[in-house]
Amino acid sequence: MKNQRSIDIQKQILEKIKSQKVKMKSKMFFTLQKLGFKSSFGLLMALSVLIFSLTIFFIEQQASTQALGLGGQAYSAFLSDLPFSWLAFVTILVLLATLIFRKYTLAYRKPLKHSLTTLALMVILAGGLFSATGFHNGLAAKAAGYDFGFLKMVYRRALDCDINQAHILIGKVISVDKENKRAEVITRGHLPMIIQLFSDTKIIDAPRIGDVFLAVGYKEGITFYAQGVRKITLSAIKNRCLVEGKLQGN
Amino acid sequence: MIGNQPNMNQFDDNQLVEIIRTKNQELFSELIIRYQHKLFYYVNRLINHPDEAEDVVQDVFLKVYKNLHGYDAKLKFSSWIYRIAHNEAVNWLRRNTKIKLESIEQSEYLENVLSDGRDITEELDLKVSIEKVRRGMDQLPRKYREVMILKFLEEKSYEEISDILRKPVSTIGVLINRAKKMLKDNNI
Fold first, then answer.
1. Residue B168 is assigned to a structural domain of this protein
2. Looking at residue A36, what is its pLDDT?
3. What would the pLDDT profile of B20-51 be if each residue is shown by its tens digit?
4. Coil, helix or strand for B55?
5. Residue A61: band (very low, low, confident or very high) from pLDDT cuts 50, 70, 90
6. In angstroms, how far is CA B184 from the centroid of its own chain?
7. Nearest in space to B31 (alpha carbons), one of B4, B52, B2
8. pLDDT value at A3 more than 70
């Protein structure tokens, strides 16, 4: 059989080794390579955790999060408000980390989805814990005081004062007309508006005079027809938009 | 040089690698002796070109020598060296795609497997000839042929095949089952 042919390549190989045509790469080379792998993997994971916690922070800050439970429009507003670009960024980072992890460890023995799920869960858990530390709140508050800079750029989304959207209105209750189911309110920039309620308007934790509220519905002139209203507490970052009447992005 | 070396049989692959790395690089010849034929058969089965297979195996050993410090003992040494051989063979196939593949050589092992009543024979038709199996394997797409060669000709375990091909163990099982089914569907 052809495969039973015998070979003897020992001599040729040893000659090449002896003549120094082929040299063994040093141990240091592989140590540095391993170190490079470990640091890139660590860096990618740390960055993923940081950005995922930032994403959670953005979701917490977006007004539409507090609108959840006030009907269908609130859910679509919440979904359209999600920080998709940041989520995509985290996904890419986790994918990269997974590929590096599988290339330099024995993780390839398990299916790709196994490593991907494990690392994604680690990022979600660590990101959730990290966001609970208030780290981003502190930095965003600091960034609010700057005119320019990297921090301002990163936290722009949270600092954004465009809190009122097509179907969401946030403001402070000035007076309440229970008989006619309406309330006089002021919104960002101290703009007066009327909130008109319906008999089936969903009210959660009814706002009283002086309370900050969030309403879901539609606007016609200075009247906002609410399908749902609730009392809310704005974060310090968002509250400044209402109190100081700051312009969008400031 | 090699004449003064101790009895090499007392060392397993990992111990030998450690000695080559730290004390005596000339003992690399022992690794060549241990693996040159196995690798030649394996590479030849993949590329079906005996003359070229010899060159490819030479390159494999040179690569192994160069990267010996990069070998991680968490892996079986044989899996590591087969992995390098596999990569070199695949690279050769990529460079020489026009060369018509000759048929895969049958091994005694395959012959035994087929006449043994072991699993594969249950799935394949017991009445068929070795020649048909040989031709059938030859016709399999490369990814199936690779796993069949490693499993039934090189007698590697699923985990070892997973290490050599860097594919999940579960995928190896799927590929082997599909390859068997293909052979069966082709009336082998």
1. yes
2. 95
3. 988 888 889 999 999 999 999 999 988 888 88
4. helix
5. confident
6. 23
7. B2
8. no
Banded model confidence at residue A75, pLDDT cuts 50, 70, 90: confident
Contacts of A113 (CB under 8 A, 6+ apart): none
Whether B29 and A25 lie within 8 Å, measured CB to CB: no
Domain assignment of residue B174, given as a range:
108-185
Q: Is B168 on the interface with A (CB under 8 A)?
A: yes
Token pair 């003064």: residue: B4
Contact A10 B37 (CB under 8 A): no
Phi, then psi, of A97 in degrees rounded to 5: -60, -40
* pLDDT given for residue B176 in this prediction: 94
A11 in B contact zone (CB under 8 Å): no
Q: Kindly give, in sequence order, each residue whose CB lies less than 8 Å from that of residue A204, ignoring residues fewer than 6 positions away.
A: A69, A70, A228, A229, A230, A231
Handedness of CA A219, A220, A225, A227 (dihedral sign): negative
Residue-wise pLDDT for B127-175, tens only, equals 455 566 667 777 888 899 999 999 988 899 999 999 999 999 999 999 9
Contact list, B66 vs chain A (CB under 8 Å): 22-25
Query: Are B60 and B112 found together in one domain?
Result: no
ipTM above 0.85, yes or no: no
Number of domains in chain B: 2
* Closest by Cβ to B25, choosing from A9, A24, A109: A24
In a domain, A142, yes or no: yes
